[in-house]
Structure formats: C-alpha cells, structure tokens
C-alpha cells in the first residue's frame, strides 16, 4: 500500500474499513487477539455465574436448566472462542515476523478466516435467547442428550460449529503454506523458532480433525431432522459412536490448544535465562510425537462406556506413552533455566508458573489415564481440576505470557512491570485457590456439571468460588494493563526489547512497521 | 524457502467480509430452515456466496493473467489445494470410520454375538444380555434388513429396515447393476482428465479441450445415474434415509460423495470454459490441475465406497 494504515485521525470510515477489509497479518492478528479476549471475558462471565451458584449448596441464583447452559457455553466459548483464536492471533502476528516473510501466504483468505468467527459466535450466543434455551448438553455434546433430548437451538449450534470449523481449516492451511513456502533464505526447518514449529504441527492437527468434528455435527443434524439413526440403537446405530467420533476430534483438539502454548514458553524461557533453548531438536521431535500419539488415544475419555478390556488396556498404555515426549519438554525447559542468568519479568513469571502448574496437570492426567482408577475419577471434579490445570494454567498462562512478552513489539510501548507482576501473583494465587480444591472435591466424589451438591462438599466449593472470583479479577487487571500500556505506556523503540531475546522478530523496530520483510532478510 | 523478493501481497479487499457475511447467513438460515421452515435467509446467503465466489476467483485469475502471481505465490496455491484435499479426506474418514464401527462392532453387540476376544468367538455375557433385554430377536447381519427396533417391537417400530439392499446382485445380473456402471464411468473420467492433462502439457489444445469436455460429460452422466439410483431406492426398494443404519450410511456416504462429484464437475466445467477462452498453457495451468487433483480424489473415494458399501455386503 502506498500509505500507512488508517488511524482514527483519517476518520471513522477509513478506520473501520482498514480493519474490515485488511489483508495485513498484523491487523488480522490484532483482530484475532481482541476478539479472543472479548470471548474470554464472556466465557469468564459464564464461569462466574457457575461459581456463584456453587458458592453454597442449594439453588440460589439460577435454575438448573440455565446452569446447564452456562457450563456448556463456558466450555464452548473458552475452547473455540477464546483459546484457539488467541493462539491463531499470535500465529498471525509472529510467524511472518519470525520466519522473515512479508505477510501470510494467502492474505485475503486470512481475513476471511477471522471474519467468519464473529458471525459464528453471534449465532452461538444468540441461542441463549431462543425458546428452550441454548445448548445444555455439555461442551462435549454427547448424543442422545444433544440429539433426542436437545433444545431446538442445537441446530444453530451445529451450523455455528460448521463455519467455525471452516475458519479453523482455512486459517491452518494458511499457516502451513506460510511456513512451508515463505521462510527467509537460510531459514531451514531445523532453524525455525520453536513457536513456528509447534504452530505448523498444530495446524496439521487442525486440518486433520476439524473435518471430523464437522462429520460429528453433521451426523447429529441428520439424526435430529432427517430420521437417520447414527446414534440411535433402535435403528442399528449407537450413542457410543458419537463419543468415538467426537473424541477422535477432541483429543487432538486439546493438543491443538496446548502445543502453541509450548511454543510460546519455549521462546520466553531462553530469553530470560539468557541461554539458548536446551535440546532444540528433541523439542521438535517431542512435539511431533505428541501430535502423532494424539490420534491413537481418544478412547481414554470413555473408559466407563463399557469398552472391552483389551480396548481399555490399549488406550491406557497408549495414553501413558504421551508422558514421555511431554516429560522431554518439561526436562528441556528446566534444563534451559539451569545455570542461566535468570531474571523474573512478568512473561518469565507466567512461563515458570506454566511449567510448574502444567506439569501438575500432566500428573493428574497420568492418574486419570489409569483405566481402573478412572472408574472412580470419571466425570468428577477431579477431571474438572485436571483440565483446568492444563487449559488455564497451561494455555491461558502461556497466552498471557505471550501478551506481556510481545506487547512492546506490537505497540512500541512498555507495560508497567510492577502492575504486570501484581497481575501475575493475583492470577497465580487466584487460580490455585479456585482449582486446587476441586481435586479434593472430585476425589471425595462430587460429580461435575451439577447445579447443586451435598453438604459435605460445601467448604471446598466456597473456597473454589472465592478463588475463581479472584482469578476473574486478575483478567480485568490484564485488560487494564494492556489498555494502559497502549495508551500511556513508556515508549520503546529499540528492536530488542529483551536483552536475551533471539530471532528475526527482534531485528525489526518497535512498534513493528506495518509492512516488514518486503525483501526477505538473510538468515545466518 | 523463499527465493524471490516480491511476493504479491494484495491490497485491502471487500471480498472476504462479504464471503463471511454469506457464510453467516447460510449457517443461520440453514438452522432456522430446519427449525421453522423458511428458507429465505439461507437462499440469500447462498446467493451472496455464489456471486462473491465468482468475483473472488475471477480476481485471482485476473491477477494471474496480469503476471502478479510469481512462482512462490503459485506454490502457496498448490499447498493450499493439497491441504484442502487432505481435510476432505479426513471428512470422509469420519464417515467411513463410522460405517466400519457400526458394521463390525455395533451390529454384533446389538445382535448379541460380540466375541470375547480376537481368537475366541464365544459371545460376551454383556452382549448376550444386551440383545436379550433390549433387542430380543435381533440377529446381526449386514445389510440389516430388519432394524433392532423392528425385531423387538414389530409393527410399532419407528425405524423400519429396507425391502431391498444395494448389494451385489449376482453375476447373472451384473450388467444391469448401476453401481458397476457408475464405477466404470468415474474410472474412465479419471483417465480422460489425465489424457486432457497430457494434451495440455504437449501444447495440443484440441486434445486438451476435447478430453476435458468428455470428462465433464462423464461427471454429469454419473450424477444423473446417481439421481436415478436414489429415485429407484426411494420408490421401489423401500430404502430411505430412515431405513435404519443401512439407509443412513448408504445415503450419507454416497450423498456426500455425490456432492463432491458435483463440486468437482463444476470445477472442471469452469476449467473447460477457461480452456475454450484460451486460458492455461503448458507452463501455467494450476487452475486446471487443481480441479483434476480434486477429480482424482473423488474417484478414489468412490472406489473405496464401491467396495465397502456395494460389493462387500
């Protein structure tokens, strides 16, 4: 473009059309990030409703039907609306900068991938206001709850999932094409930053499993409206088929969420340890191994479904295998820090917390993978605690670390370090108060997705709710910190914001110019 | 790795937001269509999509003709198409996987003869009990002409099996068996599109256009025959979407395949129109090549389908 990006000074029309019609990877990355944060706050509001209702035993605030809609929508919005788009936003911003590309490979399709999402989530959210209420069958939408017994709004949910899937597939194809085709001369595959590696593997997972999710919701649509019997034993189908198809998508999906988080942390820890990442190639192979294994372990989500014993054993051992490449990663992060000259700026604090808490969540995952023990844990708060340790302390902590780490590069302003660290400690403490007690609740037998509970669970539920409110408050602080930085942050123009940072993104000025690397840089 | 220095990054574009609007309207419209019956919103979305897709591809073709697309950009398109086809493979994998699971595992559980182990075909107690309590009288067979519902509830059943299946009719009736002809047509069309491709590579435009036209024709004939087959199934075989799991898997697998043949035929038709207008050369032919890859892909899907849905019953 001849001129720079339109700002508010050019008038509203120009400013809005810049964002709506843009083909610029940085603009699109910014759109993804703000959209995902809006969804994060909405999903967070649903979580607050859940925790407020569970503050005390008995029904106080909402009806159980609405509680079910809240748990369902919280899960859907957080997974598909907050975490996934947040990492796609980071990919859009950082991958072209990291590999020395002028933009994403297919810039117009990139814009389309983003702008589908507001439509998809408008449709999904509108179901809450429909007759019969929104989806109330859990974010895993098991048949027949989501077919025979579902509210009519399930049809809107199905088509929202369809277009979300289209968005994800296009976004992923774009990332794969960018990484395979747009690297600067000298940037061989084994020299790519780890964030790029984890993302290209994630994109592969997305292209592989989003169509399977589309298949699952299509089968639901046909069963609900057109008389087929995929999930109805009366016609020769099987509700368990739904779980197989869903988890064939769903298990890779959890790695889709966590692999980019691994990538972010693998960028940040070396920077603040002032040492190169320990075991770079083993990190790459471990990521690929995790991605491969994710396709062959899905039924560990279904141990109590009545599988033959051989199936239980196979899925148990296969699942445990995942601990090996994951262990390699944790070992490498810790070894990177070993004997480094560490400093503890906010991104580093979040990353260290990530390593500790994610590992903790990994261990509870190992407990859950034991088929015999899972008979006890299945569908209890222990599971809820486990996946919040990996999804929140894993994905969200690493996403927050990424925001603090790259914010100076994005807007040329430095965040307030004290505020950042305060936000970290509030988030860290709030998170652990919220979710640690849920392990105890689950082991004591409290089932998940219930609007009410027995008196013996009262104390830890109240503690958990208090923690959840604190953690919710920490996100408002994050929003404040980001806005305050953009508006009044101390300007920084140096290319290398962080003394120990390596990589092409730190060779361009801060804020990164609208167009970078029109000519590919020479990468040593 | 990038070697050129001038990758074409397009300027701002209105096409994506219009596409997203069309998709949003289609999604919302399809849902409200099945819920309350009106197809207005869906149709509006579809119309927007049709126009914007035409505009978008016209623009890409035009950019290519103006020489804006360098080799590197063309590689991006190649990668995009390959990974798109991979996503389609996975979509079909979901339905083939479902068919396998329903046929091999679920059916024997419902019939009460799910085996204890791989080498011991004594039925498990659970399967026997499942059959006796829930679906008494149901026997596992494929194709299932009687649904478990019918076996247990007789005339009151909601799901009623088909009168006839699409199975192999025996050697004597082989030549009158439609699926065989459909297989011949699709395999032939894969060969004709390849001959067209060879013609283009050798700068033989007559060969290119003639064989491409033949391919489009074969695609259209395939679709007509499939419609014929569906009409026959509904009117004379009692085989519908609602005839239990056999009708479900038959129509969903062949239906999605048919939808993809339709899309492939449209792609090839557009390539044909462009070829007649003088587009494509032995150097620059990806618009056609992509369509031909897609065509080979639907052909392979059909071959798998032919064997697992029609032949091995």
From TrEMBL, chain A:
Record bears the keyword Transport: yes
Every Cytochrome oxidase subunit I profile domain range: 13-524
Superkingdom, taxonomy of origin: Bacteria
PROSITE patterns the UniProt entry points to: COX1, COX1_CUB
Sorted UniProt keywords: Cell membrane, Copper, Electron transport, Heme, Iron, Membrane, Metal-binding, Respiratory chain, Translocase, Transmembrane, Transmembrane helix, Transport
Record field: catalytic activity: 4 Fe(II)-[cytochrome c] + O2 + 8 H(+)(in) = 4 Fe(III)-[cytochrome c] + 2 H2O + 4 H(+)(out)
Membrane-protein topology: Multi-pass membrane protein
UniProt key word Ribonucleoprotein: no
Primary enzyme class: translocase
Pathway: Energy metabolism; oxidative phosphorylation
Entry's transmembrane regions: 31-52, 72-91, 112-130, 156-182, 194-221, 241-265, 277-301, 313-335, 347-373, 385-407, 419-440, 460-480
Compartment list: Cell membrane; Membrane
InterPro entries assigned: Cyt_c_oxase-like_su1_dom, Cyt_c_oxase-like_su1_sf, Cyt_C_Oxase_1, Cyt_c_Oxase_su1_BS, Cyt_c_oxase_su1_dom, Cyt_c_oxidase_su1_bac
EC code(s) of this entry: 7.1.1.9
Role played: Cytochrome c oxidase is the component of the respiratory chain that catalyzes the reduction of oxygen to water. Subunits 1-3 form the functional core of the enzyme complex. CO I is the catalytic subunit of the enzyme. Electrons originating in cytochrome c are transferred via the copper A center of subunit 2 and heme A of subunit 1 to the bimetallic center formed by heme A3 and copper B.
Family membership: Belongs to the heme-copper respiratory oxidase family.
Matches recorded under NCBIfam families: CtaD_CoxA
UniProt protein name: Cytochrome c oxidase subunit 1
């Amino acid at each position: 473009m001849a001129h720079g990006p339109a700002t508010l000074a050019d008038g509203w029309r120009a400013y809005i059309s810049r964002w709506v019609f843009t083909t610029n990877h940085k603009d699109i990355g910014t759109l993804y990030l703000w959209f995902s944060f809006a969804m994060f706050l909405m999903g967070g509001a649903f979580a607050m409703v859940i925790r407020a209702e569970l503050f005390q035993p008995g029904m106080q605030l909402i009806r159980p039907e609405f509680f079910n809609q809240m748990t369902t929508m919280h899960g859907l919005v957080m997974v598909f609306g907050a975490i996934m788009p947040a990492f796609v936003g980071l990919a859009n911003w950082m991958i072209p900068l990291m590999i020395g590309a002028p933009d994403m490979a297919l810039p117009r399709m990139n814009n389309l991938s983003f702008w589908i999402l507001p439509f998809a989530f408008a449709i999904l959210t509108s179901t809450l206001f429909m007759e019969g209420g929104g989806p109330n069958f859990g974010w895993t939408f098991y048949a027949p709850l989501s077919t025979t017994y579902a509210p009519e709004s399930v049809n809107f949910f199905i088509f929202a999932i369809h277009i979300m899937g289209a968005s994800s597939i296009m976004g992923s194809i774009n990332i794969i094409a960018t990484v395979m085709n747009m690297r600067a001369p000298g940037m061989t595959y084994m020299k790519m930053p780890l964030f790029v590696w984890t993302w290209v593997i994630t994109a592969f997972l997305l292209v592989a499993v989003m169509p399977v999710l589309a298949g699952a919701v299509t089968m639901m649509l046909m069963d609900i409206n057109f008389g087929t019997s995929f999930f109805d034993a009366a016609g020769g189908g099987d509700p368990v088929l739904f779980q197989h198809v869903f988890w064939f998508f769903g298990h890779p999906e959890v790695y889709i969420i966590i692999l980019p988080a691994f990538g972010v942390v693998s960028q940040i820890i070396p920077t603040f340890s002032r040492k190169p990442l320990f075991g770079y190639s083993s990190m790459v192979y471990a990521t690929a191994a995790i991605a491969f294994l994710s396709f062959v372990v899905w039924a560990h989500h279904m141990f109590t479904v009545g599988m033959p014993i051989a199936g239980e054993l196979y899925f148990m051992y296969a699942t445990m295998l995942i601990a090996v490449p994951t262990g390699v990663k944790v070992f490498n992060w810790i070894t990177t820090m070993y004997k480094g000259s560490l400093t503890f700026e906010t991104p580093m604090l979040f990353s260290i917390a990530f390593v500790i808490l994610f590992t903790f969540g990994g261990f509870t995952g190992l407990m859950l993978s034991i088929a015999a023990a899972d008979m006890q844990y299945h569908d209890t708060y222990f599971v809820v605690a486990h996946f919040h340790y990996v999804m929140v302390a894993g994905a969200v902590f690493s996403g927050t670390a990424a925001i603090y780490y790259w914010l100076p590069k994005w807007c040329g302003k430095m965040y307030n370090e004290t505020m950042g660290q305060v936000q970290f400690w509030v988030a860290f403490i709030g998170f652990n108060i919220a979710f640690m007690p849920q392990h105890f609740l689950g082991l004591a037998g409290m089932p998940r997705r219930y609007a009410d509970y027995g008196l013996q669970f009262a104390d830890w539920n109240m503690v958990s709710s208090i923690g959840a409110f604190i953690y919710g408050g920490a996100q408002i602080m994050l929003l404040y910190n980001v806005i305050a930085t953009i508006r009044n942050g101390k300007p920084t123009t140096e290319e290398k914001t962080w003394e120990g940072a390596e990589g092409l993104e730190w060779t361009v000025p801060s804020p990164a110019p609208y167009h970078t690397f029109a000519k590919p840089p020479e990468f040593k | 790795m990038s070697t050129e220095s001038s990758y074409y990054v397009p300027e701002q574009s209105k096409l994506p937001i219009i596409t997203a609007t069309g998709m949003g309207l289609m999604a919302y419209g399809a849902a409200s269509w099945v819920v309350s019956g009106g197809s207005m919103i869906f149709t509006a979305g579809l119309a927007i999509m049709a126009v914007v897709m035409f505009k978008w591809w016209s623009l890409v073709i035009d950019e290519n003709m103006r020489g804006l697309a360098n080799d590197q950009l063309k590689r991006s398109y190649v990668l995009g198409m390959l990974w798109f086809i991979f996503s389609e493979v996975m979509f079909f994998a979901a339905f083939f996987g479902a068919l396998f699971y329903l046929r091999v595992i679920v059916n024997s559980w419902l019939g009460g003869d799910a085996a204890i182990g791989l080498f011991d075909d004594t039925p498990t107690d659970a399967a026997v009990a499942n059959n006796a309590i829930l679906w008494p009288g149901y026997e596992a067979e494929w194709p299932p002409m009687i649904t478990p519902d019918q076996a247990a509830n007789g005339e009151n059943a909601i799901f009623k099996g088909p009168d006839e299946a699409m199975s192999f009719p025996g050697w004597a009736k082989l030549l009158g068996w439609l699926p065989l002809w459909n297989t011949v047509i699709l395999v032939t069309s894969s060969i004709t599109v390849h001959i067209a491709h060879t013609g283009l590579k050798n700068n033989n435009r007559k060969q290119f256009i003639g064989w491409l036209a033949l391919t489009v024709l074969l695609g259209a004939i395939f679709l007509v025959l499939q419609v014929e087959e569906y009409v026959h199934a509904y009117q004379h075989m009692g085989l519908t979407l609602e005839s239990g799991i056999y009708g479900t898997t038959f129509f969903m697998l062949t239906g999605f395949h048919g939808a993809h043949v339709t899309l492939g035929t449209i792609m090839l038709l557009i390539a044909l129109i462009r070829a007649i207008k003088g587009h494509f050369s032995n150097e620059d032919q990806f618009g056609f090549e992509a369509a031909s890859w897609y065509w080979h892909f639907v052909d392979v899907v059909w071959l798998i389908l032919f064997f697992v849905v029609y032949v091995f019953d």
